[in-house]
Design a protein that fits this description.
Layout (H helix, E strand, L loop, with lengths): L11 H12 L10 H11 L7 H8 L41 E2 H10 L4 H11 L2 E8 L2 E6 L8 E4 L3 E5 L13 H10 L9
Length: about 200
């Protein structure tokens, strides 16, 4: 698990950087306000990690185009392609991962030893402890982790697996500064999400 991120207090420098990035965006949705943020938190039994919490309340509650590719979702909205057959999203339940998990490796093991554990674990990765930030299409969803050891980190979860964004160069497929501000800054700089392989 990465350390050094403060998810309890909003860093004024991070907030200033987010304000600057979104100030020039004509497609930004107005902020939700503190009442809406606190109501969402009470409904789901979570406290959103900073700086996302202050960002949604004071700066912007969504973006019609990038990040991600199809826009930053407003608080409490799921992408139109999310599907109605998925299990209920439980934000107060801890996100179960602390390291990348590629489904294919697990599926091969499941063929030799069939059971429900794989499906149950996959459902919890998609539905526990994370807020959907948006989609890059083709089933690629960006999640902000709101509960558990990875709280405040951003993960890309798709048909191939779950990968955390923002780890030291050379140790991840997606190196960069961890957390919401690091993820947005990475996008605003036009950098590729993935490390050169």
């Amino acid at each position: 698990m990465m350390t050094g991120m403060n998810t309890e207090f909003c860093d004024p420098a991070e907030l200033a950087a987010l304000r600057e990035i979104f100030a020039s965006r004509p497609d930004a949705v107005p902020p939700a306000g503190w009442e809406a943020v606190r109501s969402f938190e009470a409904e789901h039994g979570v406290v959103l990690p900073e700086p996302y919490r202050t960002f949604v309340a004071e700066i912007c509650d969504g973006l019609r185009a990038g990040p991600p590719y199809y826009g930053l979702l407003p608080l409490a909205i799921t992408p139109s392609d999310w599907g109605s057959d998925r299990p209920e999203r439980l934000l107060a339940e801890p996100f179960p991962l602390t390291a990348a998990w590629l489904w294919e490796e697990e599926e091969e093991a499941e063929e030799a030893l069939p059971g429900q554990e794989f499906e149950t674990r996959m459902d919890s990765v998609f539905g526990h402890g994370s807020l959907l930030l948006g989609t890059d299409g083709c089933g690629m969803y960006w999640h902000l982790i709101v509960t558990g050891p990875q709280r405040g980190h951003i993960w890309l979860i798709d048909e191939n697996g779950a990968i955390p964004f923002g780890t030291r160069p050379g140790t991840s497929l997606m190196p960069g500064s961890p957390g919401f501000a690091g993820w947005v800054t990475h996008w605003a700089q036009g950098r590729s999400w993935f490390a050169d392989v």
